[in-house]
Design a protein that fits this description.
The protein folds into 2 domains: 105 residues, OB fold (Dihydrolipoamide Acetyltransferase, E2P), CATH 2.40.50; 210 residues, D-amino Acid Aminotransferase, Chain A, domain 1 (2-Layer Sandwich). The chain is 15% helix and 34% strand. It starts with a strand and ends with a helix. The protein is globular and about 65 Å long. The chain is an alpha+beta fold and 328 residues long. It binds adenosine-5'-triphosphate and manganese (II) ion. Adenosine-5'-triphosphate binds next to strand 12.
């Protein structure tokens, strides 16, 4: 789970060219614009990440025009992600570095509304024999990156759609959204994708307990930034249910080919890890392989030899994408 608001140390402060009232602080791996001289290196601050929504209270009145929501901004040419407050906005008490204070401040996460087509009828919660799709942001992973230096990773484009899982488990075929197992209905988009690609038939042919996880993109989803007609499903994970782990890249490619499906675009299949967060954010910039006029949302960087999955991949989101689409 993301720590939206926490106690963090100011790691660095730099001036912004041409600006005399503001400067840029480094908190975790984030760059945050702050008032000049409000903080100094080593200070503890309350840091709130983008997607934080503050309560409608007098002390946060200045956030009203922004609907109390923290978004990616650009000030004097400097990208700013998040917001820093002095510790005294917290109730009296003892606080330690990295402590989460989201609830204390009554901050909640911004969640975009879900279109009707994507809601569906619920068959059950997300199956426990699978793992939900999720990726941690690179800005909070400094220690893990340093530990992974030199390891080989695979970089894919992060597609901005809706997480889709198809599974065959003990002869039962199922279709899931990010968080739910869904009943088959005519109008439900996830099931439409299963029918479009004949997923049930294909998985039965494979004849094993397996799940395909990918992103469905296109009309009606996240403003269809790739300007597609209809919808496409792009696989990013294949999960071996019996082993309770992901298949390796070779097996992944073989299965995707055998089933005649599309995978998410691969940007680099031998990426040697380094631990410079700013460079990994820079690397996320660029345009989509699917539409060269659309800024890409970012990249997902995954350890080449991973079986267990969790904790072996992360995302780097393109700040230019967030600026353009407003952290949607
Ligand atoms: P956050 O946790 O940062 O608040 P979030 O949990 O909504 O945000 P996303 O930003 O949607 O997460 O990022 C994770 C999702 O990215 C995964 O659930 C998956 O559906 C999607 N995704 C898109 N492209 C890829 C890809 N190439 N590899 C892995 N996941 C991908
Ligand atoms: Mn997440």
């Amino acid at each position: 789970m993301r720590k939206l608001v926490s106690i963090q140390k100011v790691l660095d402060i730099k001036s912004i060219e041409g600006a005399d009232a503001i400067e840029v602080a480094k908190v975790l791996g984030w760059s945050v614009v702050v008032k000049k001289n409000e903080f100094k290196v080593g200070d503890m601050v309350v840091y709130a990440e983008i997607d934080s929504v503050f309560p409608d209270k007098p002390e946060f009145e200045f956030l009203r025009p922004r609907k109390f929501r923290i978004k990616t901004m650009k000030l004097r040419g400097q990208v700013s992600q998040g917001i820093c407050f002095p510790l005294d906005i917290l109730p009296d008490g003892e606080y330690v570095e990295d402590q989460e204070v989201t609830d204390i401040l009554e901050v909640v996460k911004f969640e975009p509304p879900i279109p009707k087509e994507l809601q569906g009828l619920v068959k059950g919660t997300f199956p426990e024999f699978l793992v939900k799709t999720d990726e941690t942001r690179v800005q909070v992973l400094q220690r893990q990156l340093t530990e992974s230096k030199g390891d080989v990773y695979v970089v894919t484009e992060k597609l901005d759609g809706t997480s889709t899982t198809f599974y065959l488990h003990n002869d039962e075929f199922g279709v899931c959204s990010r968080n739910l197992d869904l009943l088959e209905t005519e109008g439900n988009l996830y099931w439409k994708m299963a029918r479009k690609y004949d997923i049930e038939e294909k998985l039965r042919k494979l004849g094993r307990n397996i799940a395909l996880q990918g992103e469905t993109i296109g009309e009606g989803i996240q403003s269809n930034k790739y300007k597609l007609q209809g919808h496409e499903f792009h696989v990013f994970n294949i999960f071996d249910i019996d082993k309770h782990g992901y298949v390796n890249p070779e097996e992944f490619n073989a299965i995707v080919k055998e089933l005649g499906l599309n995978a998410v675009p691969v940007l680099d299949d031998v990426f040697i890890m380094h631990d410079k967060i700013d460079e990994l954010v820079e690397y996320a910039k660029g345009f989509s392989v699917l539409n060269n006029k659309t800024k890409r949302e970012g990249v997902v960087i995954k350890l080449r030899d991973h079986e267990t999955g969790e904790g072996h991949s992360f995302k780097s989101i393109n700040p230019e994408f967030l600026l353009k689409y407003g952290d949607d």
